[in-house]
Amino acid sequence: MREYRFERPGTVTEAxxxxxxxTAYLAGGTTLVDLMKLEVMTPGRVLDINRLPLxxxxxxxxxxxxxxxERMTDVAADPRVRLGYPMLSQALELSASGQLRNMASIxxxxxxxxxxxxxxxxxxxxxxxxxxxxxxxIRGENRMHAxxxxxxxxxxxHPSDLAVALAALDARVQxxxxxxxxxxxxxxxxxxxxxxxxxEHDLRPGELVTGVMVPRxxxxxxxxxxxxxxxxSYEFALxxxxxxxxREGDTIVEARVAxxxxxxxxxxxxxxxxxxxxxxxxxxxxxxxxxxxxxxxRPLRHNAFKPELMQRTLIRALLxxxxxx
Length: 325
Description:
It contains twelve helices and twelve strands. It is α+β, with helices and mostly antiparallel strands. Strand 2 (23-26), helix 2 and strand 3 form a beta-alpha-beta unit. Helix 5 runs antiparallel to helix 8 (161-168), helix 10 (270-276) packs antiparallel against helix 11 (283-290) and helix 11 packs antiparallel against helix 12.
C-alpha cells in the first residue's frame, strides 16, 4: 500500500470541496482497503466520510429512502425492508459474509469494483485500470465474466447483488457534488464499457452518493432474489435474478425482472417483463418468457453456459415465488 493522506471532513459540502482526482471516499472500506493493498487503487488522499449525516432509513408515502452510510446488515434486518421489499433483504443477506455486511455501507456496495482477476492483478493489462492496455479476459480465463453489455474493451461482470434488486425496483441514486444535488435512475447510473470501461458510473468529479430512493411498490411484497454460485457460503454470483410479480387471480398483470452475474452492469430485462404480463402464471409461461432473456448475449469460451443458466435461474425464481403465496 502506498502512502496517502487521511482526512475526516465534518460535512458533505466539505467532503465534496476537498475531493480531487486523486481522492477516494472511505465508508466501510471493505472494497477500497483491499484494492489499496493490491495497489489497484492508489489515492493520494482518503476522506473518511463515516461522520457525515448520511444514515437513516425512512419510509414515506413515496417509498423508502436509504442513507448511503447505512450498513448492509441493518438495512436487511429492517422490518420495512424485509416485509415490504423481500428481494432487497434477500439480496443483501446473500451478498457477503456476516462480518463484511456489518461493515459494508449501502453506498459503498453500489460503488464496489469488479472482481475480475485481471483488474485486481497489477501485473496484467486491464482497460478498466489502465485505459488502452487491453482486456486479457476476452481470450483468457473468463468463466465468471459477463455475457451482456460487453464490448471489445471489457467483459468484466458487475459484482453487486443489491444493485440488481434495486434495478428491478426502479430505484434512484441521490448524489451531491459541487454543482448541487441530483438524482439518477440506478440503471442509468452504471455505464456500459464500450471503449471507455474505466468510466463506470455517471459520477461527476467529487460527487458523493448520499442515498438511495426506492419507489413505493406495494406488490413488491411478492418478490424474490435468487442467487446461484459455486459455494453457498460466500461467493459472487454466477447468475442471479430479482423478480417481483403482480397478479390478478391466475394472471400476471405486471412484472419486474433483473439479473446479475451476467452483465457489465445490473441488467434489467424489459422483454421478459413484457412476455410475462397478461399471461397465466404457469411454468410454460415462465419458460417462454425466459427465452427473451438471452437476446443480445455474447458468450465467451469459458462462459458459454451462462445464457442457459440465466434462463434456468429466472424460471426457478418465478416458481419459487409462486410457493410464497
